[in-house]
Amino acid sequence: MNILITGATGFVGRHLVRKLKKDFSLHLLVREGSDLTGLEDIPAFCFKEDILALRQYLNKEKIEGIVHLASLYIAQHREEQIKDIILSNVYFGTALLEAASKSEVKWFLNTGTIWQNYESDSPEYCPVNLYAASKQAFIDVARYYTAVSPLRFMTLKLCDTYGPWDTRTKILALFKRIAETGEELAMSPGEQQIDLLHIDDVIAGFRVLIRRLSEEKEQGEEYVLRADRPYSLRELAAVFEHVSGKKLNIIWGGREYRLREVMCPWKRGTVLPDWQPQISLQEGISDLLQHN
Where would I find the NAD-dependent epimerase/dehydratase domain in this sequence (predicted)? Predict the structure, then answer.
């Protein structure tokens, strides 16, 4: 099966490509200037705002499915970043949907975020930030394309992810740095909870949904991947200290909670069938430290 992947240069994308290329014929959709180091063996199409050329590529390569990971994540945006957020998270995907809906592509697997739901116990859409709002906007756009074409569209909402070779400045990367340097890290009071999922469990979820889509078992559904339980930042720091054997020099309460801080991750939504996390937080942190 021929699958097109966007966002292959990101953390999740690189891991996904590495695992999927053993079983599928992969193609990458990239933007100009993308760093394809380590991905040189995968055919790539550079999107230059030409939707017709993209549609012709999809047909020529007989692309059957699309995994859409590309996005621009900004937790708290500035005014000058609004255009880039919309271009990356709404326009780029819409251009791809336009091309896919007029080609032989059968399914489109979109990646969402639990940050589209600020209220932990509510099923209603309530974005944490503009990034999450733009992710929902794209899903709304997709409803038009599934109404006017046979394209099957699915969204897989992810919680926070972690694992080896992660270059993002996420919380575990900060813990690892201060464990090595001994420097102080000013943090919020640390009572907010975080749902962390190891990258191998995330990739397993994508594989399950790709299989279900290829078997034509899914249409217009939305699933969630989440860990067995959330941890407060204080609990997360304690687990990291236990696994690493190093004390973290954290100043709890050294900074305020940010605007619309998520104190408890979203608890609603349907967890992906035929999937469950396999890697505990302790095992995942150990794996992270060994590989990095």
Answer: 3-223
